[in-house]
Structures are given as C-alpha cells and as structure tokens.
Amino acid sequence: MNVNNAPQVIETKYSFEFKEKQIEAINSIANGKDTFIVLPTGYGKTKIYSHLPEIYGLLNNMMGTILVISPLQSLMLDQVAKMSAIGIDATIVGECQPDKSVADHILKGDFGIVFSSPEAALTPGMWRKCFTSGVFCDNLKAVVIDEAHCITEWYQQPPKSIRTQILKKLDMIEKEVTTVYQLPDRQNIMYTVKKSRNNFIELQWLLDDIVKNKFNAKKTVVYCRNIATCANLYEHFSMNINQCDNITERLVAMYHRSTAKLNKDHVLEEFPKNNSKLRLVFATVAFGMGVDIPDIDYVVNWGAHVALNSLPRMCGRAGRDGRQSKSIVFLQGMILPKTDPVLK
After folding, report:
1. Domain boundaries, given as residue ranges, for the chain
2. CATH fold group of domain 6-181
3. CA 34 to CA 75: how far, in whole Å?
4. CA-CA distance, 318 to 301, in Å (whole number)?
5. What positions does the domain Helicase ATP-binding occupy (predicted)?
6. Which strands, in side-by-side order, build the sheet including 65-69?
7. What tens digit of pLDDT does each residue of 217-269 get?
8. Class (C level, CATH) for 189-338
9. How far apart are CA 212 and CA 239, in angstroms?
C-alpha cells in the first residue's frame, strides 16, 4: 500500500473524510519530511496526527508511535479522551498522570500516541526514559509540537520571521521543510471593534440575552486579559441573574488557571454539548487551545490582548460548525499602550 491509499482506509474505518490540507500534511509527514502546518482554528489539525500510527502500520506492516508535545494539560486530557473513545491507543504523561505503571506500557509500545508536556519530555527521569528507550522509541515515527506558537514570543514579528524563529528553535532546516497552510478567512464570522470605557454596562446586551432566554441564550465566550477582570465580570453577571448554587444548572461560568478543578471539569464537559445549559463562559487564554466547541455564537474580547497572534485564535472559536457568528473586540484606552502596535 502507498501513502496515497492509506488515508482512504482510515476514512472507511472511522467513517469520515480527511480535508485537503490534512491529506497534504499526512503525505508530507509519512514521506519523512519535516512539516510546518499553519491552518485556521477549527480546521482539524489534531486529525492530522491522530491516525499516523495506523497509517505507518498500513505502509510498513508495523504500527508506528507518535510523541506529541503540548503546552496545556486540559488540551492533552481532552484529546486523549476523544482518541480513546474511538479506539485509538493514547495516553498522557507528566504530573497529571497518577498511574506510574503507564511508563512500563509506553516502553512496551502499548500506546500509539503519547502526549507530554515540554517539562516531562525534557527533564531527566521516568517519563523521558519512556521516549528514549524500549519499543516506543524503536517505533517512533514523528514528534509533533502542538500549539507551536507557544515556542517563541511572537510579539511585533512579521509572519515570515515567526516561522523562521520556530523552525530555528526546533533545529529544522528551513529550505527542507514542507509548509502546509491555509489563510484563516472565516466568512461566517462578523468582526466588530468597539471603543470601550471599561464599563460593564457595555455588556448589558449580553446580560439581557441570558436573563430573557436562559438556556436558549446565545452560546458565548468572553475573553478577559487577566483573572481579576474575569472574576469581576463573572460576579457581576451571577448576581444579576440570580445564579443558582447547583453547578449543573448554572448559566454562567468562568475558566482560568486558578479556577477550581471541579469547575474546570464542568466547563470542559458541559460547554461543548449542543444542548448545554451553560451559555456563557468568562475566561482567560487558559481556555480554548484545542478545545472543540463547534457551536459558539459570540466571542467577545474584553480588551485587546497584548499580542496580535492571540486575536485570530480567539476569534476563530466562533462558528466552527459554519453558523453565522460574531467576534467583538472592546478596545479600552488605558490598556492600548501595552497592546501590540500592529493591533493598535
């Protein structure tokens, strides 16, 4: 079997169709080429490496293994759960893995895909040993750096320079790298920029929607620049809608790095549902990377973020299922001096 036919076998087995750029990326990786992938939010970048072990198995009659380095624990846990649900052998290592026997299973090659934080992969110890010895190491076909924008600072850098910096950090030879890309032109998203006085009354329209329509209100994420603002907005909305104590009946939630695990788990489990009772999440950048929520109606940025590259990723959370959606940025004068000059 050749590399052009292998994806078709996967499509038949799992009842889906790869997109054009996914096929292009898979072919490049399977042919042993370093590959730099830049695709719009929601395109399905995870799908590119999810089936690589099986594709290598079809090509070489022996399943390959893949190491995925990712910066966010919640993202890795979400991906492992989704892969396991469809029969893909995947696991996670690091401080969030309480079962130390997983190390032995990795060494034996029992997992086709292993997710790791950069710290677990680079720090000498039990987890790093799993990647550098045993069957997993012998069968290793690719190392995937997910959310690669986290590798280096993007601020005030032109796109070509960004790519160059990332490739340099990964010790990849630029002229030998295959680049797979698609411009992030999401025509189902209407973009609006509003001048803000940092007054919560400017979000009254959102509060009115929650009060009036309750569980049928527009599904919305409000991104805040910091935890304090996130908490203040959450408290303001909760008080004005008489938020109930029962977490499963709440209309509004917040998500940031200091949010209690119970609340984080509830958001990650409930908000992606099509019939979710949870309609509004106030969040920092800790919420979003890789989390698949296809039916978000509004993405609100309460204050532009420091870096220009953050904005399209956040705006891209809206309307992943193709629905008409809105991205609204509230620009506040007092934070503009700290904002990316290009964004200003």
Report:
1. 6-181, 189-338
2. Rossmann fold (3.40.50)
3. 24
4. 12
5. 26-213
6. 90-92, 113-116, 65-69, 140-145
7. 999 999 998 999 999 999 999 999 988 889 999 999 999 988 998 998 899 88
8. alpha beta
9. 15
